[in-house]
Amino acid sequence: MPICIQNELPVKNKLLEEGVVVIEENRAKNQDIRPLKILILNLMPKKEETERQLLRLLGNSPLQITVEFLHMTSHIAKNTAQSYLEKFYKTFDEVKDKYYDGLIITGAPIEQLEFEDVNYWGELNSIFEWSKTHVFSTLNICWAAQASLYYHFGVKKEQVDDKIFGVFEHDVLIENHTLTRGFTDTFLAPHSRHTKIEEEKLPSISELDILARSEEVGTLIAATKDLRKIFVTGHIEYDADTLHNEYVRDKNSNLPIEVPVNYYPGNDDTKAPKNRWRGVAYLFYHNWLNQVYQQTPYDLTELGK
């Protein structure tokens, strides 16, 4: 089934070129179906790149999905024109009375700040709290996973000496769990972060299941037992060249950066990297959407009850 996005969203043509099935708003409104409603809070500076990465994965589903984008009003985007945000994104005030099957909160390049020092921390707290009664399942990515674990469970983040940067091997810890069903016992996934979570605190949180973990970089996937909150500390949505672009950016800016671990063929940064986690990404998002579809109430206003 297709994914429904705004008619003029620039990333639409790129998705069509990749073979992602997209349906325009006008046509979707004439279909007698209740699509899954997904809200994406996009905190990344390169909005269109993140839109494409996530919509590609959401579009690989037999379900019809309607997607809306959200941005923070308490933060002025430096890399995205205000006119673009006004045309394609909504504010929290515009969605706070709505209900959604799923919410995705992306990462953000602000992990070296304390949570309370982030200029939109108060607004994000309001969204975390709102999601308890207006969203069936929230998927938090990278920094958002750390922020959500801190807000909901008091799990702090810690600075690491060297940036966690590369493609790492992970083990599936719970066999046949809904979110990791179909995964191989070990799989690869990218990470790009300067902080880690308090790993030692996670086992003491009875509401949480740890689903996938790396001996090198810690937990990748965790979720509450009711699947209302999901945490992914890495970036399985990344394109093959995303880590490369980050590496070149930092290198050209004379920032301290090492070659991404287990990323370039032969550890040679002159060779084009390959995407070795694409299958895991598609399967994870398929599993998440399938579970949301099965468990979310048909009448979303029941979430508020």
From TrEMBL:
Keyword Acyltransferase appears in the UniProt entry: yes
EC number: 2.3.1.31
Subcellular location(s) of the protein: Cytoplasm
Single GO term (MF): homoserine O-succinyltransferase activity
Keyword flag Nucleotide-binding: no
Active site, UniProt feature: C142, H235, E237
Keyword terms of this UniProt record: Acyltransferase, Amino-acid biosynthesis, Cytoplasm, Methionine biosynthesis, Transferase
Catalytic activity: L-homoserine + acetyl-CoA = O-acetyl-L-homoserine + CoA
EC supergroup of this enzyme: transferase
Pathway noted in the entry: Amino-acid biosynthesis; L-methionine biosynthesis via de novo pathway; O-acetyl-L-homoserine from L-homoserine: step 1/1
Gene Ontology CC entries for this record: cytoplasm
CDD domains, per the entry: GATase1_HTS
GO biological process terms, semicolon-separated: L-methionine biosynthetic process from homoserine via O-succinyl-L-homoserine and cystathionine
Superkingdom of the organism of origin: Bacteria
Alphabetical list of Gene3D superfamilies matching this protein: 3.40.50.880
Residues annotated as site: Important for acyl-CoA specificity: E111
Annotated positions for site Important for substrate specificity: S192
NCBIfam families: metA (TIGR01001)
Purpose: Transfers an acetyl group from acetyl-CoA to L-homoserine, forming acetyl-L-homoserine.
Designated name of the protein: Homoserine O-acetyltransferase
Upper lineage: Bacteria, Bacillati, Bacillota, Bacilli, Bacillales
